[in-house]
Amino acid sequence: MELTLWTYEGPPHVGTMRIATAMEGVHYVLHAPQGDTYADLLFTMIERRDRRPPVSYTTFQARDLGGDTAEMVKTSVREAYERFKPQVMLVGESCTAELIQDQPGSLAKSMGLPIPVVSLELPAYSKKENWGASETLYHLVRSLLLQQVPPPNTDRPDRDPAIRPKANIIGPTALGFRCRDDIQEVIKLLGEIGVDINVIAPLGAKPDDLMRIPDADFNICLYPEIALTTCKWLERSFKQPTVKTVPIGVGATRDFLAEIGEVAGIDVSAALRRSQDDTLGNWDAARISSSANPGASRLPWYSRSVDSTYLTGKRVFIFGDATHAIAAARIATEELGFTLVGIGTYSREFARQVREVAQQHGVEAVISDDYLAVEQAVAEAAPELVLGTQMERHIAKRLGIPCAVISTPIHVQDVPARYSPQMGWEGANVIFDDWVHPLMMGLEEHLIGMFKEDFEFAEGHMSHLHTAPHQTGEPAAAILSGEKATAVAVAEPLIANDDSKEIAPDPGDVVRWTEDGAAELKKIPFFVRGKVKRNTEQFARDRSITAITVDTLYEAKAAIGQ
Amino acid sequence: MALQPCTEIPTAKTSPSAPVQALPVLKERGQREVFCGLTGIVWLHRKMQDAFFLVVGSRTCAHLIQSAAGVMIFAEPRFGTAILGERDLAGLADANDELERVVKELLDRRPDIGTLFLVGSCPSEVIKLDLAKAAEKLNHRYFPKTRVLNYSGSGIETTFTQGEDACLGSMVPVLPAKETEEPALLVVGSLADVVEDQFKRLFDKLGIGPVAFFPPRRASDLPSVGKGTKLLLAQPFLSETVRMLMKRGAELMPSPYPFGIEGTTAWLKTAAEAWGVEGEKFDEAIAPSVARATLGLERYKKLLQGRKAFLFPDSQLEIPLARFLSRECGMELIEVGTPYIDRMLMDAEIDLLPPGTALSEGQDVEKQLDRCRAARPDITVCGLGLANPLEAEGLSTKWSIELVFSPLHGYDQAADLAELFVRSSERRRRLSV
């Protein structure tokens, strides 16, 4: 047993769900107890998808355990096939189903469905989410392409120089970190150097698309945690080279272009030159009026401008999946001038690479999926900024350190509506803003710590929460507290009350809150408290009530609405 | 610990009340799109701040809870998972030793924990880990500083709010015994603090007392129970807890649940009758609240009148809510789905449903979705796994979890409750893009 306050990855079957949900025409039958359907919410809520994930669960209960749970698998497979008519079916089990050993994969394979059935063996008690996703992608691709594999020692014919090279982008999934926008950014990069996209998988691909993977000249392994196993197999089977540089950060993006240049045998020097020249923002008219503004990031100039001087030597601790942690370490040190005081990953498969980076910076890598060990490492390193996952937010809150998220696990706020890649030139812009933003907050906190009696920047309030100065005896002041305090939307009354008129507070106003009324008001959630207070006082004034009791509060609420 | 069937429907009727109308109940089995009982931790950790919930389970369990609660940032987590590894499954590691080590690690970090719940899960139940015994052993070591209790929130045994039932059930045996046989009121079920205070004031006004609430705000402030304890249920999903309280001598006062004006009045009346409160005094005491609630409800009633509602099973709140929506808001009920029906706790509500209401128990989610799409209801109450997909199909939804997380009981929340069902269609009306 392992005490886990927060887990960095879900179980492996969630990885399978990420592949199935990323694709079209694939259905996943999952042998799992009632309740494991919570995972649907990862996609419908955190990623805000507008349809249910293509997953059928057997949802067995205790009363089924005495009976034939294997029969439930068959029923689910049959019904899922009839209802959804997928082109490929994945069949597997969750951690509880693994214990009762119904062999759902073999059962499904024996049912004679007219489509490929991929049986997944994912040991839930020793492996985790990314491994599950990687394994699923590998088995899926292998099942579909095994027929096409040429005999060993067959050489790949050389590309006709008259035809533009074609690349597959392998690795983006549902619930990945910013995959949606990273792909757009990589497509732009490839367009700039004259490389065409053959297949993007799994995100947005159909099984037929996977069948076309061998047509490309090379594979771009965009998210090694998910795609490396598959890329290696494709390299062995179809002699397709793998581009391994992950283009996160300005330097890494340049290296990425250079690597493609080598692998595809094309000249990328123009694109690299552009990325070097053009880093001074968009201040002249000629550039603003040009929509074609390729190949430059603002990060280099922003990072060189004098207001970034205070970033020099800021101590940063980095944790996440290996890909994002390694990329972040390079950006932090070479592109922002921070000092790396700690780095780690929960991706054990890539521990060696992370250790190498740690060694370059003279720190010890934290290779762990134990949240408490990471917390301890952060506390010991005493950084000024933590770049981590959703879980490091908890650590940073506890230790009072500014924090930005660079990797999964994430929550809903890291699947934003706006364009927000991490990769390519624009990705570097996003990264500059996101990583520096919490530091600004941090600076404000320092000032609050230094000058405690400030009338505006009071203890416990961050200025970005717009809290108003607290003045006793002035109802209008307290009204503001909480009014604009958070981004939490408050339901306005749905029907405007025609009697409610905005009356300027009369300075001679004598509306008083009784002790019990005031105590009741404190129980109202803070983000609506201000409004309730104002409404109640207005209500009292209108009726010449001088002392506001609990009943007045609720009468006002009933009369005015929420 | 033997696995109990999950949906035992007791037939015992406690009161010879009015004959229950024989509403036909559609019983379905198939894929169930519901939460397991572990989800109860998401609100119970706030209700009882001195408690810690340690799930003994797999990474799936840990992932579930953090996916639900992890959007909030905790400087001090109040729940965690002891994740079973292959060594535990192979019996290479002694489960009790392992638990002891994990609990020690936890209590070293969080010495302020007053009550520690060891929460069973599907994996721990399937491999038959005896957590009850483990809790007992740990109690010897840590009590009185920390009390260790055990319940199961596994998906194979419990659905969503049944997690609270199981949690409260685990506390019943350690409630202190009542010293006298004088009548005392025990309100059972998690209520928002503000609602508790409102009810407390009304009981005081009616001269009903002493009143205690279960669960308490601190797990260490346990109410007493015994002969003379009269139970008023604030939540309908507490089958297990009620039966255990009855075994300790408490008496259940069956009643509709305090949702809406009618439900709240019936609920208070149940207590008032037990305390022999005169009708006139009762009416007088509730009059201002009723008047306010009527006024507040009016504006939403206009909007809900004649609209069609479809409720997917989730929390067992569906039947009381459907009663409120149909009787007080004038809505038409297409289907009222509930994970299961405990007649002893639900008859008073079922009696109030309009004749011919389509009740369903259990779920085959695909078929139920087909029925829902065919009916095109004006509002669909469902879980978050279905809400966005149905919205994308043009249906207005009210996600049901909010009904467990919001102060909705009692008079002064009647309008808020109705507003929840208006909000999504109102939103559609406002949005033009």
TrEMBL record, chain A:
<comment type="pathway">
    <text>Porphyrin-containing compound metabolism; bacteriochlorophyll biosynthesis.</text>
</comment>
<dbReference type="InterPro" id="IPR042298">
    <property type="entry name" value="P-CP_red_C"/>
</dbReference>
<dbReference type="GO" id="GO:0030494">
    <property type="term" value="P:bacteriochlorophyll biosynthetic process"/>
</dbReference>
<dbReference type="Pfam" id="PF00148">
    <property type="entry name" value="Oxidored_nitro"/>
</dbReference>
<feature type="binding site">
    <location>
        <position position="36"/>
    </location>
    <ligand>
        <name>[4Fe-4S] cluster</name>
    </ligand>
</feature>
<comment type="similarity">
    <text>Belongs to the ChlB/BchB/BchZ family.</text>
</comment>
<dbReference type="GO" id="GO:0046872">
    <property type="term" value="F:metal ion binding"/>
</dbReference>
<feature type="domain" description="Nitrogenase/oxidoreductase component 1">
    <location>
        <begin position="12"/>
        <end position="439"/>
    </location>
</feature>
<keyword id="KW-0411">Iron-sulfur</keyword>
<protein>
    <recommendedName>
        <fullName>Light-independent protochlorophyllide reductase subunit B</fullName>
        <ecNumber>1.3.7.7</ecNumber>
    </recommendedName>
</protein>
<keyword id="KW-0602">Photosynthesis</keyword>
<feature type="domain" description="Light-independent protochlorophyllide reductase subunit B-like C-terminal">
    <location>
        <begin position="513"/>
        <end position="557"/>
    </location>
</feature>
<feature type="binding site">
    <location>
        <begin position="442"/>
        <end position="443"/>
    </location>
    <ligand>
        <name>substrate</name>
    </ligand>
</feature>
<keyword id="KW-0547">Nucleotide-binding</keyword>
<dbReference type="GO" id="GO:0016730">
    <property type="term" value="F:oxidoreductase activity, acting on iron-sulfur proteins as donors"/>
</dbReference>
<dbReference type="InterPro" id="IPR050152">
    <property type="entry name" value="ChlB/BchB/BchZ"/>
</dbReference>
<dbReference type="GO" id="GO:0005524">
    <property type="term" value="F:ATP binding"/>
</dbReference>
<dbReference type="GO" id="GO:0051539">
    <property type="term" value="F:4 iron, 4 sulfur cluster binding"/>
</dbReference>
<dbReference type="GO" id="GO:0016636">
    <property type="term" value="F:oxidoreductase activity, acting on the CH-CH group of donors, iron-sulfur protein as acceptor"/>
</dbReference>
<keyword id="KW-0149">Chlorophyll biosynthesis</keyword>
<keyword id="KW-0560">Oxidoreductase</keyword>
<dbReference type="InterPro" id="IPR013580">
    <property type="entry name" value="LI-POR_suB-like_C"/>
</dbReference>
From TrEMBL, chain B:
<feature type="binding site">
    <location>
        <position position="122"/>
    </location>
    <ligand>
        <name>[4Fe-4S] cluster</name>
    </ligand>
</feature>
<comment type="similarity">
    <text>Belongs to the BchN/ChlN family.</text>
</comment>
<dbReference type="InterPro" id="IPR050293">
    <property type="entry name" value="LIPOR_BchN/ChlN"/>
</dbReference>
<dbReference type="GO" id="GO:0016636">
    <property type="term" value="F:oxidoreductase activity, acting on the CH-CH group of donors, iron-sulfur protein as acceptor"/>
</dbReference>
<feature type="binding site">
    <location>
        <position position="36"/>
    </location>
    <ligand>
        <name>[4Fe-4S] cluster</name>
    </ligand>
</feature>
<dbReference type="GO" id="GO:0019685">
    <property type="term" value="P:photosynthesis, dark reaction"/>
</dbReference>
<dbReference type="InterPro" id="IPR000510">
    <property type="entry name" value="Nase/OxRdtase_comp1"/>
</dbReference>
<comment type="pathway">
    <text>Porphyrin-containing compound metabolism; chlorophyll biosynthesis (light-independent).</text>
</comment>
<dbReference type="GO" id="GO:0046872">
    <property type="term" value="F:metal ion binding"/>
</dbReference>
<keyword id="KW-0479">Metal-binding</keyword>
<keyword id="KW-0408">Iron</keyword>
<keyword id="KW-0547">Nucleotide-binding</keyword>
<feature type="domain" description="Nitrogenase/oxidoreductase component 1">
    <location>
        <begin position="36"/>
        <end position="419"/>
    </location>
</feature>
<keyword id="KW-0149">Chlorophyll biosynthesis</keyword>
<dbReference type="Pfam" id="PF00148">
    <property type="entry name" value="Oxidored_nitro"/>
</dbReference>
<comment type="subunit">
    <text>Protochlorophyllide reductase is composed of three subunits; ChlL, ChlN and ChlB. Forms a heterotetramer of two ChlB and two ChlN subunits.</text>
</comment>
<protein>
    <recommendedName>
        <fullName>Light-independent protochlorophyllide reductase subunit N</fullName>
        <ecNumber>1.3.7.7</ecNumber>
    </recommendedName>
</protein>
<comment type="function">
    <text>Component of the dark-operative protochlorophyllide reductase (DPOR) that uses Mg-ATP and reduced ferredoxin to reduce ring D of protochlorophyllide (Pchlide) to form chlorophyllide a (Chlide). This reaction is light-independent. The NB-protein (ChlN-ChlB) is the catalytic component of the complex.</text>
</comment>
<keyword id="KW-0560">Oxidoreductase</keyword>
<keyword id="KW-0602">Photosynthesis</keyword>
<keyword id="KW-0067">ATP-binding</keyword>
<keyword id="KW-0411">Iron-sulfur</keyword>
